[in-house]
Amino acid sequence: MPTPPLVQGLALTKRFGRYLAVDHVDFTVQRGEAFGFLGPNGAGKTSTMRMIGCVSPVSEGELRVLGMDPAVDGASIRSRLGVVPQEDNLDTELTVWDNMAIYGRYFGLSRGVIRERAQDLLEFVQLGDRRHDRVDPLSGGMKRRLTIARALVNQPELLLLDEPTTGLDPQARHLVWERLYQLKLQGVTQVLTTHYMDEAEQLCDRLVIMDRGRIVAEGSPSELIRRHSTREVVELRFRTTEDRQAALPRLNGSGERVEMLPDRILVYTGDGDGTADLVARDGLKHASVLVRRSSLEDVFLILTGRTLED
Amino acid sequence: MAAAPPMLRVLEREVLVFRKLWRGTAFSSFVTPVMFLAAIGLGLGGLVERRSAHVAGLSYLAFVAPGLLAASAMQTAAGSSLWPVMAGTKWIRSFHAIVATPVTPADLYGGTILWIALRATAAAGAFLVVAAALGGVPSPWGVLAVPAAALGAVAFAAPLAAYAATQDTDLTFPVIVRLGIVPLFLFSGTFFPVSQLPAWLRPVSVVSPLWHAIELCRAATTATPHWAASAGHAAVLAASVAVGWRWGTRTFARRLTP
User: Fold this and answer.
1) Residue A92 and residue A168 in one domain
2) Residue of B1, B10, B13 to mutate, testing the A interface (most A Cβ within 10 Å of its Cβ)
3) Is B94–A78 a contact, with Cβ atoms under 8 angstroms apart?
4) Is there a single domain that holds both residue A21 and residue A162?
5) Cα B229 to Cα B238: distance, rounded to the nearest angstrom
6) What is the distance between the alpha carbons of residues A149 and A104, in angstroms, rounded to a whole number?
């Protein structure tokens, strides 16, 4: 018998006045997996996340989190969640340690339990030697790691991460990714939103692609690429817009699909080098050619006609 | 779970911050009013008494002490219900972190108000001791002025905190202080009886919650209670708390869990 899902949304909808932020989405999250919502800003990811986190009432449809209804058991559900929000909301009037301590108290934990856990968690996010520091002077990456440690103080069954590495520099991002991977190995179920396709590929076992409040595709990163894109992509850049526009008709038929972007043309093909050779023989006036594997970015482009960064 | 109710956990956070920042807070809510008491009650009071003996049958110090007690409680309440709420909802967004836990927006609102009540009580108690030492509290019933001042403080804090949660910026806050709190401070019977006001202004001061708080405090420190009137003053203040509380639990929920 399959285990019941940890989170289940059925025709889940969120309206703010007349604005439809989340439009009848269906999804399930199983225990132990890392599940992602990938999409550009404004796709409805955060609104969905906030409904799962029981801090935003469901407008329509059904939502079950840990088998319970957020409208009825919000506080009980929240007591078993860990939340890492998009914008840091650490208590800047308190030290690193006191942020951990008071957050544990909000969950009703005893001071003894908090003392034990907080030290381990600060070590886990590599802030063990910062416990007496104030929060404000910490770097963006440290703040995010502290927010993650704070979210773990109640030993949550489900960790919600909204854009966990947005605004971090590459090194800080990799450190966060590595810690999240460790948590996954420990069996913590993670639901995350991101508009970075590399983050989705790194962290998610399974994901849904969201666009304008709707889910447009669902699967593992490799499944999605296999199903919706070709194996490889040839990226052509041009010196001028005229060159690029002139090239477009001549590229038709060079691959399975051709997409023109503001700064380049993408040719989707099973055989990147072969297509690149063909283009070279054709004598197109391009500035550079790059052959690469298809990514989730391509899946998004093919499904929506837009890029994730829009 | 036999843990403290969520509202008290919110209070615990305030205590934690206060333990580090108490000097500044203590200054504004205790030292400042005591300086007012010394300057106005003793300094100006000496001058007043030389000319016209007593004010409302009291020494000027005894008249002004309960007024300053209630008025400074109001000022502290206004300061700690406007900007700190804006900080929690908008600036540092710490309120959003709190409502992601089992603590609800209503708990958070309640804890915030409870903390203001506690601080107002402590500040009023300290002020009363100094006022009594200076001879400004003729009656031992004066201890009742402490809960009266705290009630007055919450009568302001409850609706102001509720209002603060509806705002996206603090632009209106200085206006509230300048056009609301400061005029009330000056014209609600703090420094002179409202009977001194021009007739057309008197009804305004009677609507002011501060006037009710001051009358209540003054009845206690001078042991001149008109029981029916005092009950009426307390009822007006309690009504302000009740309306504010109802409003605040809603505005906090709307702001934090839209």
Assistant:
1) yes
2) B13
3) no
4) yes
5) 14
6) 11
The C-alpha of B96 sits at a distance from chain A's nearest C-alpha, in angstroms, of 7
- Residue B104, number of CB atoms within 10 A of its CB: 23
- Give the gap in angstroms from C-alpha A104 to the nearest C-alpha of chain B: 9
Contact flag B100-A91 (C-beta cutoff 8 Å) = no
Is residue A302 included in any domain, yes or no? Answer: no
Q: Which domain holds residue A73?
A: 7-220
Same domain, A78 and A42: yes
Local confidence band at B2 (pLDDT 50, 70, 90 cut-offs): very low
| Residues B94, B99: Cα–Cα separation, whole Å | 9
pLDDT digits (tens, 9 = 90+) for B146-182: 999 999 999 999 999 999 999 999 999 999 999 999 9
Nearest to A89 among B1, B6, B96 (CB): B96
From residue B70, alpha-carbon distances to A98, A132, A170, B67, B152 in Å are: 34, 39, 56, 5, 7
Of A36, A40, A18, the closest CA to residue A27 belongs to A36
- Structurally, chain A folds into a number of domains equal to 2
Q: Is residue A303 part of a domain?
A: no
Together in a domain, A86 and A212:
yes
Q: Say if residues B77 and B153 touch (Cβ distance below 8 Å).
A: yes
**Residue A160 and residue A21 in one domain:** yes
List CB contacts (< 8 A) between A74 and chain B: 104
Read off the CATH number of the domain in which A81 is found.
3.40.50.300
Interface check B6 vs A, CB under 8 A: yes
CB contact under 8 A, B102 and A107: yes
Q: What's the one-letter identity of residue A176? A: V
Write out chain A residues lying below 8 Å of B102, CB-based: 75-76, 78-79, 106-108
Contacts of A154 in chain B (CB under 8 A): 101
pLDDT (tens digit per residue) in A86-109: 999 999 999 999 999 999 999 999
A307 lies in a domain?
no
* C-alpha to C-alpha distance for B157 and B159, rounded to whole angstroms: 6
* Distance in Å, alpha carbon of A201 to nearest chain B alpha carbon: 27
Nearest CA in chain B to A73: B102
Q: Is residue A309 part of a domain?
A: no
As for the ipTM of the complex, it is 0.91
Best of B11, B85, B101 to disrupt the A interface (most A CBs within 10 Å) is: B101
Tell me: do A196 and A276 sit in the same domain. Answer: no
